[in-house]
User: Which sequence fits this backbone?
């Protein structure tokens, strides 16, 4: 068996280790973001495990901060007002670990359920946007 190198795509164990380091205070949100960004932003095509990809996306976004007083816009990096609390990060790890177990038990059923949830979320968001547009009064003279 060939030894893994730092250039090899991450495994679930790598993702979990970085996540646990974050929750234990051994790594900063920015450090974890930087590590995940390599894979999310530049080498995503090398990730074959959907749960590794999902974990990397979470780690990539845990450094998000609100960048305006209205808390409507977010961006990466240190800031006073974090989007994700420490408790949220820890509970998301537990949910991700459960998803890994569910996926391994029945990958087809897991992916079917994930697609169903994604469709429902997209439909709910589209409905919210339609309602918001309907509430905006027309511009005079148009």
Assistant:
């Amino acid at each position: 068996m060939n030894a893994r190198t730092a250039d090899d795509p991450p495994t679930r164990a790598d993702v979990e280790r970085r996540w646990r380091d974050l929750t234990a205070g051994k790594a900063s949100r920015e450090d974890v973001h930087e590590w995940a960004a390599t894979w999310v932003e530049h080498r995503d095509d090398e990730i074959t495990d959907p749960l590794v990809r999902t974990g990397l996306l979470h780690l990539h976004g845990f450094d998000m901060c609100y960048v305006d007083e209205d808390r409507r816009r977010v961006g990466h990096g240190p800031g006073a007002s974090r989007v994700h609390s420490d408790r949220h990060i820890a509970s998301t790890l537990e949910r991700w670990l459960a998803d890994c177990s569910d996926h391994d038990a029945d990958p087809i059923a897991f992916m079917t359920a994930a697609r169903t949830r994604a469709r429902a979320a997209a439909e709910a968001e589209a409905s919210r946007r339609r309602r918001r547009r309907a509430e905006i009064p027309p511009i005079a003279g148009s």
Notes: The chain has a mean pLDDT of 91. The radius of gyration is 19 Å.
